[in-house]
UniProtKB/TrEMBL annotation:
Location, primary (coarse class): cytoplasm
Source domain of life: Eukaryota
Biased composition regions of type Low complexity, renumbered to the chain: 7-20
Compartments reported by the entry: Cytoplasm; Nucleus
Pfam families assigned to the protein according to its UniProt record, in alphabetical order: Methyltransf_31 (PF13847)
Origin species: Pteropus vampyrus
GO molecular function terms noted in the UniProt entry: protein-lysine N-methyltransferase activity
EC class: transferase
Name of the protein in question: EEF1A lysine methyltransferase 2
Coiled-coil residue windows: none
Similarity section: Belongs to the class I-like SAM-binding methyltransferase superfamily. EFM4 family.
Methyltransferase domain boundaries: 93-224
Keywords: Cytoplasm, Methyltransferase, Nucleus, S-adenosyl-L-methionine, Transferase
């Protein structure tokens, strides 16, 4: 789904934002101050929402074998794998997919040859769906855990690469103290990622500049990955930001 927006308007995660590289209507509650609480709360920021989504997708997978939605589309996965390939990330590097959803990105990583990959999600039905898809693909060596990234229960640490595709966006829409939750996200990320480790984030709710601000403490921007652009009324912009940070 491609959405064209006037220049200056923002894309944002919406219930129909999955599958395409552009998203729905901005959920902003007004002027954006980076680091502030700029998004209107939404069901997409709650675990209840994701539990319901993945329970439904699990039933669909069991009945029809359909793997469900891939957030930001297939190209968003290829873009990340291309970067990992270009930067010669070793195939045995430990990779964490934060908020893995249906785990399809883990499947792609494993098919590409990565052998030390972990997916976490706070939704048990997402992890069940990921497990079913991984099993059907006949893949082994993929670790899955039900984990709230904001309240990690285990000694999850030592990752060389952390991936986020839409999870920081979802957390930003939490109706209950999103600003605090974003800060906790950065703390959790610092805890699980090795020094000099890479953090690859794809977002439809935050611009490059805002993400730079959110991850200013302890992370530096290495690269902005090209994403499709839209144009309208003489202006052009990108509806999705894909950035690579390195932990300092
Ligand atoms: C937009 S979906 C993206 C799913 C997947 N990364 C993809 O690209 O298809 C957001 C995911 O983040 C998960 N999530 C949200 N908050 C989380 C948290 N605090 N801890 C772990 N997972 C979380 C949701 O359950 C959901 O699977």
């Amino acid at each position: 789904m491609a959405v064209q927006r006037p220049s200056g308007a923002r894309s944002g995660m919406s219930a129909d934002a999955s599958g395409g590289d552009a998203a729905g209507v901005a959920a902003r509650s007004g002027a954006v101050s980076p680091g502030g609480d700029g998004f209107a709360p939404s069901a997409l920021g709650t675990q209840e929402h994701w539990d319901a989504v993945y329970e439904r997708e699990l039933r669909t997978f069991q009945e029809y074998g359909d793997r469900g939605e891939i957030w930001f589309g297939e190209e968003s996965m290829n873009r990340l794998i291309r970067w990992m390939q270009k930067h010669k990330i070793p195939l045995d590097a430990s990779v964490l997919d934060i908020g893995t959803g249906n785990g399809v990105f883990l499947v792609e990583l494993a098919k590409f040859g990565f052998s030390n990959i972990t997916g976490i999600d706070y939704s048990p039905s997402a992890i069940q769906l990921s497990g079913s898809i991984i099993e059907k693909e006949g893949l082994s060596n993929i670790k899955l855990k039900v984990e709230d990234f904001l309240n990690l229960s285990t000694k999850l640490s030592g990752f060389h690469v952390c991936i986020d595709k839409g999870t920081f966006d979802a957390i930003s829409l939490n109706p209950d103290g999103a600003a605090e939750k974003r800060k906790q996200y950065v703390k959790s990320l610092s805890r699980v990622l090795n020094v000099k480790g890479f953090f690859l984030i794809t977002s439809c709710n935050w611009t490059k500049e805002e993400l730079l601000d959110e991850f200013s403490e302890g992370f530096e921007l290495l690269e902005e990955l090209p994403t499709p652009t839209f144009s309208f009324g003489g202006g052009s912009g990108s509806s999705v930001a894909a950035l690579v940070f390195q932990k300092t």
